[in-house]
C-alpha cells in the first residue's frame, strides 16, 4: 500500500515512520506541509493508495488538504486518515465532512495504527482487484463503473454525504455524551432491486445519487451525515434534539423525488419509492457497538416499507 | 542477533535520536511560551498569540508520551484543549495557571534528562 503521510512536526514524522516500517508499511512518503503534498500529487506517476494527514498544520490545515485531495478525481475514493490528538475533537466532525475515511490519535499507538490501517489495507486491496478486473475485462463491459446491487456506491458530489465506512468510523469516534445525543434515520428504496434489474448498474447508481440528493435537500440541518449502505438503503445521522417526523419526511421526500419523474419516464424506468423509518437514538446498550444504530435505522425503514401504500401504484406504472 | 533484538535496538535508536532533538527544542519552546505570555499580559488577549502558544502545546502533546514524558504530554494536551475554546479574561486566568504548569513540566523533563 503506497501511503502519503503529511505532518509539520519532523519529530512526529520520524517516530511515525519507524512505527509504520515496523508494522510492514514500507512504501510511505513523508512531507511536512499541505502545499508540498499537493505538489507531489501533481507530479506522481503511480497514485497513492492512502493518505494520513495531520489536522493541525500551519497555512493549509489537514481538513483543507483533505478537501483539496478529494477534489482530485483520481483520489475521490482513496482512504484518507486524519491524524490528530484528542484535543482536536471539535475538528473531527469537520474532517469527516471534508471526506476523511477514518482517524488516528496522537501520541502514536501501534495497536490502533495496525488495526485501522489493516482495515484500509483490505479495502485498498479489494479496490485494486476490482480495478484489475476492469482493466482486463474488456472495454464494453466495464466502460463505466460497475456496481452490484449490494455495493456502497460513492455519493461524493451530494452535499452532506460520506462513505458508509467513514460513517461507521465516525460513530466509533464519539464519546458517550456525543453518542447519546445522536440519532440515526434509515431510508429504504422499496423497488431498488427492480430498478437495478431493469436499468442496470450505471443508471441505478445515478438514481441512488438522485435519491441521496433529495434526502440531503429534505434534511435542512447542516449537521446531517448521509450515507448509502447498498441494497437501496440509506442512513442519516442527526442530532437527537432535531425534531423529525418520519411520515412527514417521507411525504416531502417522495414529492422531491417525483420532480425527477419526466427524466425517469424518458429512461422508461420506475420512480424510486422511498420509505423512512422512525429514528433510532443511541442508548447505553449501543455504546459497546455504536454502529448498531445504523443497522437498526435501516431495519426500521425496511419495516416502514411494508406499510407504504404508494408502492403498488408506482409498480403499476 | 535475533530479529526481535534488532527491532528493539532500531526502535531505541530512533526514539533516542528524536528524544535528543525534542529536548533541544523544548528549552527554546519554554522560553517562547514565556515570551508569548508576557506579550498577552502587555498587549491583551490576542488570538494570534493564543494560537502560537496552542501550536507549541500541540507539538509537545503529539510526541512527548512516546518519548517517555507522559505527564508533560497530558498537561500539553490539556492546555491545547483549553486554548482551542473561546477565552474571556476570566478563562485566560485559569488557562494561564495551566500554562505555568506546562512550563513546570517542560523544565522538569529537561532537568530529568540532563
TrEMBL record, chain A:
InterPro entries: Bact_response_regulator (IPR050595), CheY-like_superfamily (IPR011006), Sig_transdc_resp-reg_receiver (IPR001789)
Chain positions found as 4-aspartylphosphate: 54
Superkingdom classification of source: Bacteria
Protein name: Response regulator
Signal peptide: none
Keyword Transmembrane helix: no
Domain Response regulatory: 2-121
SMART domains (UniProt xref): REC (SM00448)
Keyword Coiled coil applies: no
Species of origin: Rhodophyticola porphyridii
UniProt entry keywords in alphabetical sequence: Phosphoprotein
UniProt GO BP: phosphorelay signal transduction system
Amino acid at each position: 500500500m503506497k501511503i502519503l503521510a503529511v505532518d509539520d512536526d519532523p519529530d512526529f514524522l520520524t517516530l511515525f515512520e519507524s512505527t509504520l516500517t515496523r508494522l510492514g508499511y514500507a512504501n510511505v512518503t513523508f512531507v511536512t506541509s499541505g502545499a508540498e503534498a499537493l505538489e507531489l500529487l501533481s507530479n506522481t506517476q503511480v497514485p497513492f493508495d492512502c493518505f494520513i494527514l495531520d489536522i493541525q498544520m500551519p497555512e493549509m490545515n489537514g481538513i483543507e488538504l483533505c478537501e483539496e485531495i478529494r477534489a482530485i478525481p483520481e483520489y475521490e475514493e482513496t482512504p484518507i486518515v486524519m491524524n490528530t490528538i484528542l484535543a482536536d475533537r471539535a475538528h473531527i466532525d469537520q474532517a469527516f465532512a471534508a471526506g476523511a475515511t477514518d482517524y488516528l490519535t496522537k501520541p502514536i499507538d501501534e495497536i490502533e495504527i495496525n488495526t485501522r490501517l489493516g482495515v484500509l489495507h483490505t479495502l485498498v486491496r479489494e479496490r485494486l482487484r476490482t480495478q484489475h478486473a476492469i482493466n482486463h475485462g474488456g472495454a464494453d463491459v466495464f466502460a463505466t463503473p460497475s456496481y452490484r446491487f449490494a455495493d456502497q456506491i460513492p455519493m461524493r458530489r451530494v452535499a452532506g454525504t460520506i462513505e458508509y465506512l467513514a460513517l461507521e468510523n465516525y460513530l466509533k469516534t464519539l464519546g458517550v455524551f456525543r453518542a447519546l445525543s445522536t440519532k440515526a434515520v434509515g431510508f429504504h428504496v422499496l423497488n431498488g432491486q427492480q430498478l437495478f434489474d431493469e436499468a442496470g448498474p450505471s443508471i441505478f447508481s445515478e438514481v441512488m445519487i438522485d435519491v441521496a440528493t433529495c434526502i440531503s435537500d429534505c434534511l435542512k440541518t447542516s449537521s446531517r451525515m448521509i450515507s448509502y449502505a447498498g441494497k437501496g438503503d440509506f442512513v442519516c445521522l442527526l442530532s437527537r434534539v432535531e425534531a423529525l417526523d418520519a411520515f412527514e419526511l417521507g411525504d416531502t421526500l417522495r414529492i422531491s423525488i417525483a420532480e425527477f419523474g419526466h427524466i425517469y419516464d424518458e429512461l422508461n424506468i420506475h420512480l424510486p419509492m422511498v420509505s423512512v423509518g422512525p429514528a433510532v437514538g443511541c442508548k447505553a446498550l449501543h455504546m459497546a457497538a455504536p454502529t448498531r444504530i445504523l443497522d437498526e435505522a435501516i431495519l426500521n425503514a425496511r419495516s416502514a416499507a411494508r406499510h407504504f401504500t404508494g408502492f403498488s401504484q408506482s409498480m403499476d406504472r | 542477533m535475533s530479529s526481535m533484538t534488532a527491532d528493539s535496538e532500531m526502535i531505541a535508536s530512533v526514539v533516542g535520536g528524536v528524544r535528543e532533538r525534542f529536548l533541544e527544542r523544548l528549552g527554546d519552546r519554554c522560553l517562547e511560551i514565556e515570551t508569548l505570555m508576557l506579550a498577552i499580559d502587555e498587549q491583551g488577549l490576542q488570538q494570534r498569540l493564543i494560537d502560537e502558544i496552542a501550536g507549541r502545546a500541540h507539538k509537545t502533546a503529539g510526541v512527548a508520551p512516546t518519548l517517555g514524558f507522559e505527564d508533560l504530554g497530558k498537561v500539553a494536551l490539556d492546555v491545547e484543549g483549553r486554548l482551542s475554546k473561546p477565552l474571556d479574561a476570566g478563562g485566560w486566568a485559569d488557562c494561564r495557571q495551566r500554562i505555568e504548569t506546562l512550563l513546570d513540566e517542560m523544565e522538569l523533563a529537561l532537568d530529568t534528562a540532563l
